[in-house]
């Protein structure tokens, strides 16, 4: 189930960035599609929280919202901004290749820190190397 959810999310990310690129083409600033994206998510999740927990959900939201709680939103907004710029300047395939390769490299580092370097098996590292090589090939073709 989680595998299918992740596959669907990967496809949704491509559609999201293509749709945001279309909005950006009609707007004077990248901030327009970024704000529309954020406003949509805010309204959706606020509505779901109210539906699920009612006013108590808003109270809990206020209680857990210290400065650390905003870091994921900042990082997510940075990711969306970088993705949109990549789609506009490099195209979808090159952007996705770079994002996935960098996510895998950081994921390997995070696993090595959390579980120890021995957790990174040779075949895992070989697979990561192949993915990085594939990303390099995809990105090198973008310049043509």
Helix and strand composition category: mainly alpha
What is the mean predicted local confidence, pLDDT? 95
**How big a fraction of the residues is strand?**
under 5%
What's the count of strands? Answer: 0
What is the molecular shape?
globular
How large is the radius of gyration? Answer: 19 Å
Report the major sheet: none
Domains (count)? 2
- Report how far the terminal alpha carbons are from each other: 39 Å
Output the helix-strand order: HHHHHH
> Helix tally?
6
Which bin fits the share of residues in helices?
over 70%
Low-confidence stretches: none
Protein name: DMT family transporter
Organism: Xaviernesmea rhizosphaerae
Transmembrane segments: 34-53, 65-87, 93-113, 125-143
Keywords: Membrane, Transmembrane, Transmembrane helix
Please tell me about this protein's structure.
The chain is mainly alpha-helical and 144 residues long. The chain folds into 2 domains: 69 residues, no CATH class; 55 residues. It is 85% helix and 0% strand. Helix 1 packs across helix 2 and helix 4 runs antiparallel to helix 5. It is globular, with a radius of gyration of 19 Å. Keywords: Membrane, Transmembrane, Transmembrane helix. It comes from Xaviernesmea rhizosphaerae.
Which labels suit this protein?
globular, 2 domains, 85% helix
Topology:
Layout (H helix, E strand, L loop, with lengths): L1 H25 L4 H23 L1 H10 L6 H19 L2 H24 L6 H21 L2
